[in-house]
Design brief:
homotrimer; 227 residues
């Protein structure tokens, strides 16, 4: 990403006397971001194929699931054009992942569910952490930054379900959005207590990932009022 | 709201030689805004509970119904970040109202429908007036400002219905969005004819509220073409 | 459109020594834009009537189908407020077309389907070309500009289907969004190879229109994976 990024300025400005750690951190963030984008794009394509959409629908759902949450976050925090529109690499990666899923759908079908769930939890945690960080970098109130982290992690899935004309699954069941929210909250609280950005991000990632995996493993659900 | 608000500047700049009326008006607007937010958040939580959503879904619908219309308006008129993102008090109030509705749902169930309808009409009128005013303050064309008022009043309910995978009720039945539109139009016309902002707002509120209540009382419907 | 438009600056700055061609081109663009808006508004109203919506629902769908794609494009490329909000002529035209369709629905029903399909393809091609051009004028990456063109052409129909609680038809069947994408790509590639803006626009229009009409005529479909 060659264009101006407030995040870099913030990181460069505090606590890091030389540029090396910043550059390394930027690369780690970039790789994590691209990995999360790819996982979510594959899931979007998979959902589109199962819903009987055509190739264009598959590509649209790859894009939307991978990038929709970040786009809504950027619109809400005033970071326009959203980075997924400014940086062509993210959409291209989403489309390539979607197309590959379409062509190799039999192989994707045979991936064990446990692996998909784990990769999805990784993607969720990456996006929740990145979303909270970007909101803080744009001077959004810490409480709202936790919401922006959750939105980054879950927004794409919500739009996917709206496009498929069904109630978003995160509103009905599972510890999913709440895991993203918790991870984002850990990032924000960590920053408040003067953790380094890298440590806060790592703690937030672990919190979200472990909470999500434990919820799947033990079948945890949020309370609900019986009809 | 401690940050810069164009609305205050406008009000301070015209016709008011001292600051006192402005301060009082600001407080009235704030209280009205918070009251409308609370009523809509309770309704959103109520709809979520009836649709079988879990606690997270209840909180999301509280947020969306209370703040979704204003957020879309702010994105459309270029007031970013939207005030519901910049000012943490609105989301916190929406979440608290949603959580309280979840915990006290039996009590909420027993509230008479007529009271709920009346409170809802109050919230609708408050939001329609506030939405039209904010659009005018951002130099949006008067005709578009009436649409922004209607959007502020009804947008949250539209997103609620989209999330619940059903056709938005305001598009199908009832004098609801049209009452909001009428109230917003009264505000805009009043301002054009040099009413004081307070008088224009009061007239718009009364117009929307009375039209909505009369429509409920007498079962008024907009025309529709039989299938 | 009397307010500042980056598009005009770009056009005025390159290759046109006098103002005459620019003015003529602006008028052609304006007429084309208004024609596309009217066609799409009629289609939105038609869909609303068939879905049993009331008069307000008909007006909302006229607005959304005619202007929704352009509004989302403008939000994504950072052109806020969107031109459909800044320029009252577009919404007024959409509402007038929607109201006329409501009043004259029997006559609209009797319009031959082939004519409607042709007009729709004209509107699609106009919007795809205009959307790609505007994105380029806002310095969006060429690849993303092709997506913005497709979004301008199809976004309104996607929101229509979401409001009607059904899976957007462009995701499931037909060469429609892909025709818009192809037309937008022709515009972008033409500009890259130093075509005049007018020639690139004309080529993009023809490509989208012919591809769409051929797809209807010969029943072309995109590939899909059998369930």
């Amino acid at each position: 990403m060659t264009d101006f990024e407030p995040q870099d300025v913030t990181v460069a400005g505090d606590r890091s006397p030389d540029r090396r750690p910043v550059t390394i951190r930027r690369q780690v963030v970039l790789v994590a971001d691209l990995a999360g984008t790819m996982v979510f794009a594959i899931e979007g394509a998979h959902a589109a194929i199962r819903a009987g959409l055509d190739l264009l629908g598959v590509l649209v759902l790859s894009f939307v699931v991978a990038l929709g949450g970040g786009i809504i976050r950027d619109l809400l925090i005033g970071a326009t054009p959203p980075s997924a529109i400014r940086d062509w690499r993210y959409p291209v990666l989403a489309f390539v992942a979607g197309l590959a899923t379409f062509l190799l759908h039999l192989q994707v079908e045979s991936v064990p569910a446990a692996l998909l769930t784990t990769l999805d939890a990784v993607g969720l945690a990456l996006f929740a952490v990145a979303g909270a960080e970007k909101a803080l970098d744009f001077n959004i109130h810490p409480f709202m930054a936790t919401l922006m982290g959750a939105m980054t992690g879950c927004g794409g899935g919500v739009i996917r379900d709206m496009l498929l004309a069904r109630v978003p699954v995160v509103l009905v069941a599972d510890i999913y959005a709440s895991a993203a929210w918790a991870g984002a909250a850990v990032v924000v609280v960590g920053r408040r207590f003067s953790c380094s950005p890298a440590l806060a991000a790592a703690l937030g990632f672990v919190a979200c990932f472990l909470l999500r995996m434990a919820a799947v493993r033990f079948g945890w659900q949020l309370p609900r009022i019986a009809g």
